[in-house]
Amino acid sequence: MITKTRNQKAWFLVLPVILLVAFNAIIPLMTVVNYSVQETFGDNLFFWEGVRWFEEVLHSPRFHEALVRQLTFTGIILLIEIPLGVMIALQMPRSGPWVSVCLVLMALPLLIPWNVVGAMWNIFALPDIGLLGRVLNATGLDYNFTRDPLAAWVTVILMDVWHWTSLVVLLAYAGLSSIPDAYYQAARIDGASRWAIFRYIQLPKMKRVLTIAVLLRFMDSFMIYTEPFVLTGGGPGNATTFLSIDLVKTALGQFDLGPAAAMSLIYFLIILLLSWLFYTLTMRNEGH
Length: 288
What we know:
single chain; MetI-like fold; 72% helix; globular
């Protein structure tokens, strides 16, 4: 009988990563937990409050309204970007010189910083000087995202679709490129239609990458802050005040550190729970 000796020295290679994660995630998280159960008036003086801030946030109509806006925005984004990204990926060439051109064009929006995206769309959509605003108003539409909540929502959604659909396209294209040609050859021999090929060959083979795409887009859209803040500032009124914007207003605008810390933990747990539920439901039949 041969006994294998395990070499545990490899853990030393992971140690720098563990320390980095601890410094960047665990320590700040514990600081937030500390603030969420205490009250402070400055001078480094803290007073124990228990779960008061959590109860206050969970019973706050302001939090409920921001959560509904956030869930609505994320749902719309997923319903638009996932099918659109798959459709674009299906139309992209699989070989030839145009492959590189298409991939570069798809990657361009992802290279633009988030604050620049918000500033670009702010100028682009202004009703008096923006190209989008002037064109829409010239057609007879009363478009002004600074005053009309519906126009603000449409503008924020268009901006996010323009910025992040490329991510779904690239992931879907990677999944399509990994499908062996033998599957397509067998489908042609059987006389399968375009829809049948997509349903029974391409879509199942893209399941894993689409799961990653949905999870990434869900988490990112649920935590969106910079783009809508630069574009609308959360307005008009509170029309586009999502959870992240409301959290920043509570923490920095009002300097209510206790409620802000409790809200950030609830925010984190909501994202974690919804991501876990989606992943579990999506991958539950993967082993069969």
